[in-house]
Amino acid sequence: MIQDIVQGIIVANECLSGVFYRNYIQSWKEATSNQITVEGKAYDTDEWMNAPSSILSSISRRLHLQPDHPITITRKLIESRFPAPTYQKHNTLFPIVSVGQNFDSLGFPADHVGRSRNDTYYINKSTVLRTHTSAHQADTFRAKTSEGFLISADVYRRDAIDRSHYPIFHQMEGARTWSRSAVPEGTTLARQVWDDLKTIPKHDLVVEDPNPSFHPDRNPLQSDHHSPEEAEAIATHLKRSLEDVVVTIFSAVRAAAAAAGGSSASTSEPLKVRWVEAYFPFTSPSWELEVFWQNDWLEVLGCGVVRQRLLDSAGVPDRVGWAFGIGLERIAMLLFEIPDIRLFWSRDPRFLDQFRERVDGKITRFKEFSKYPPAPRDVAFWLPRSTPAARTPDSTNEPHSAPNPAGGLAPESASNAPSSSTTTNSPSASVSSTSDPPPAPASSSTATTTYPPFHENDLTELVRAIAGDLAESVTLIDAFAHPKTGRQSRCYRIVYRRLERTLTSEEVAGLHERIGRELVARWGVELR
Ligand code: DAH
C-alpha cells in the first residue's frame, strides 16, 4: 500500500519536475524504510541516522588498499618500520562500529562532544561510522594474536570541505604491549622493554623533549599499575619507534625534494622534532609529535601509554604497552606534495597514473595538471527568526578548522575537551552521490513549521549531497545581524569545479538552485 503511494508520487513527480524529485522521493523512501544495507550488512536506522548516501557509497573505495595509490604507498612506507611477526597488520576492518567500540571502550565521557551528531555519522543511536582507528584497539587487544599491531583504515567525521579537510580520511593505529607473566626469571618488565629497544634503528634526528616522561598534574603516570621505571621504558620505546617513522618519512620527502631540484632550508637543515604533552582518554601519559617543517611546527601524530583499564576490560590485564594514531593524508600530502586532500578521491588517470609503489621506496612528487576553471557562486540568506540559537561562525558553528595530528580534528585539550573544533560504490548505498539531498521535514510547507537550527556542517553536507565532488569549497564570506530586527544574515561562497572539463553555467546554475531550494525547505531560511 505504502509502496503504491510512493510509486504514485514518484510517477507524479517525474511528470512534474523530473529527476530531482524522483531522487528526493527515493531518499525519503530509504529514510522511511528504517533499514539500510551496506556491503551486504543490514542496519536498522532511527532518528539518529545522519550518514548520507554520498558518504556510505564511498566506503567501498578503500583508498588505502588501492594499488599505487598515494595513501597505500604512505601506509606501506610506515608499515615497513614495524616488522612482522611482532607487528600484525590489519587493513580490512569494517568501518561501521558500535558506539561502544568507538567511544566507550576508550573511556570517552558520555558528554564528550566528539559523540555529537554534528561531529559523527550515526547509523542509529548505538552504531556509527568509526571516527578513528582507535575504535578497534580493544578488540585487537582482546584477540591476542600478536604483541603489536598496525590498523590502517578509512575514518569518518562530519567536517568542512576545503583543501585539508574531507569527511573521510585514513588513519593508522599502532600498538605494542608486553606481558607481565611472560617476563623471564631474573629480569624485569622494564629491562625487557629496554632490551627490545635495541632493535630499533638509531637516527640522527634533533629531538626536543623538554618535559619529564610523566607529571602528576599535566601528564600522570598510572601509578596504580606502572612503576616509574616501567612507564619510562615504555615511553622511550614508543618515542624511539615513532622517531624512526618520522626519519623514514621525512628522508623520503627530502630525497624527493632534492630529486626535483630543490635546495631550500627544508632539504638542507637537520630534521628537527619535538614531543609535546597531550591528553587522550585512553592513554596516560600522552604526547603529540611535531616536526619542524617549512618554518613551522607540524603535528604529526598522537600517542601514549595505554590506560590499564582498557587492557583490563579487553581481557588482557597482564599486558602493558603503548599506542599511537597517525593521519595518512597529511603525511601523503607532504610526501608527494599533493596540494588538495580531495585529489586523493580523484579517478582521473592524470592523477592516479603519477604514482607507483617502488621497491627502493623512492617517492615521485605530484605534478599539477591543468585545472579547469572554478565556478564560484554565492548563496546569501536570512536565518529564520524562530531559529533558537542560530550559531555564529565563531562558536560551534565553525567546523573542524585545526587539523589534529591523527588527521582531521583539533587536538583534544588537557581539559578533556573533545575534538570538536577539530576523507564500485556500495551496492546498497544505491542513490548516486550527486543526487540525494536529505529529505526535508515533512511539514515544511506549513507556516507553523519549526526548523532545526542552521549549522554550517549541515550546509557542507547538503552541498556534498547535491554537488558531490564538483563542490570544491564552501566558505562563509559574510555574517551580520540586521541592526534593527536583529535577524541574522549569512553569505556562503560555493566554488564548483570539475577536474575533467569545464562545467557549463547551466550545470552550475542547476546545482546551485537545488542547494538554495533545499536550504529553504530544510532550515526555513529566506534567500536574499
Ligand atoms: N584516535 C586519536 C585521534 O583520532 C589519535 C590517537 C591518539 C590514537 C593517541 C592513539 C593514541 O592510539 O594513543 O585523534
Characterization of this structure:
The structure is a single chain. By secondary structure, this protein is of the alpha+beta class. It folds into 2 domains: about 60-95 and about 130-350, Bira Bifunctional Protein, Domain 2 (BirA Bifunctional Protein, domain 2), CATH 3.30.930; about 370-525, Alpha-Beta Plaits (2-Layer Sandwich). About 30% of the residues lie in helices and about 20% in strands. The chain is built from 14 helices and 17 strands. An 8-stranded mixed β-sheet has the order 3-7-8-13-12-11-10-9. Strand 5 (about 120-125) and strand 6 (about 125-130) form a beta hairpin. Bound molecules: 3,4-dihydroxyphenylalanine. 3,4-dihydroxyphenylalanine binds near residues 173, 304, 324 and 406. 3,4-dihydroxyphenylalanine binds near residues 173, 283, 323, 324 and 404. It is found in: Mitochondrion matrix. Belongs to the class-II aminoacyl-tRNA synthetase family. It comes from Cryomyces minteri.
Chart the SSEs and their pairings.
Blueprint: H1 2-17, H2 19-33, E1 35-38, E2 41-44, H3 53-56, H4 70-79, E3 87-90, E4 96-98, H5 99-102, E5 122-124, E6 127-129, H6 137-143, E7 148-156, E8 168-179, H7 189-197, E9 206-208, H8 228-259, H9 265-268, E10 272-280, E11 283-293, E12 296-306, H10 308-313, E13 319-327, H11 328-336, H12 349-352, E14 375-382, H13 456-467, E15 471-481, E16 488-496, H14 505-523, E17 526-527
Parallel strand pairs: 3-7, 9-10
Antiparallel strand pairs: 1-2, 4-6, 5-6, 7-8, 8-13, 10-11, 11-12, 12-13, 14-16, 14-17, 15-16
Helix pairs in contact: 1-2, 4-11, 7-8, 8-11, 13-14
Bound molecules: 3,4-dihydroxyphenylalanine.
GO molecular function, one term: ATP binding
Protein name: Phenylalanine--tRNA ligase, mitochondrial
GO cellular component, one term: mitochondrial matrix
